[in-house]
């Protein structure tokens, strides 16, 4: 896996990443940190990427389990250390799993498998942060 990050050259702290798969992603800093608030902060991208990583796993596991999953949302909130490096110290993941006739034990299993075995991003963040998982099943 590869990526390249370049400073945009604009006044401020905007950066453009080009991923190994050829996609571009913009990031910026907060105005009080020299940024222009033109794009997400790098740590917001880390948090969002972790949510996408685990949601991907949950959907894939539930599909393979024969569940009629229609949607999966993960709402996350994170706390960070006061001092630099301001790593995440606690992350709450709340899954909304939407489908028809979803079996609660299989939803529980999918979320646990994601975080205990498959999601590389949460495995890394779990080294510095307490990870808390909750979920709800919504009938579609």
From TrEMBL:
InterPro entries the UniProt entry points to: KH_dom-like_a/b, OsmC/Ohr_fam, OsmC/Ohrsf
Coiled coil: none
Any matching Pfam family: OsmC
Domain of life: Bacteria
Protein name: OsmC family protein
Biological source species: Limnobacter parvus
């Amino acid at each position: 896996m590869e990526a390249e990050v370049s400073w945009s050259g604009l006044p401020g702290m905007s950066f453009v990443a080009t991923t190994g798969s050829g996609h571009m992603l913009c990031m910026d800093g907060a105005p009080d940190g020299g940024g222009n608030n033109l794009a997400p902060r790098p740590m917001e991208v880390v948090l969002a990427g972790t949510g996408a990583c685990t949601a991907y796993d949950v959907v894939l596991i539930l599909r393979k389990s024969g569940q009629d999953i229609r949607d999966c949302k993960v709402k996350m909130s994170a706390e960070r250390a006061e001092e630099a490096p301001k790593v995440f110290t606690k992350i709450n993941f709340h899954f909304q799993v939407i489908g028809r006739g979803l079996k609660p034990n299989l939803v529980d299993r999918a979320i646990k498998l994601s975080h205990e075995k498959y999601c590389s991003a949460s495995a890394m963040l779990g080294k510095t942060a307490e990870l808390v998982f909750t979920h709800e099943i919504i009938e579609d």
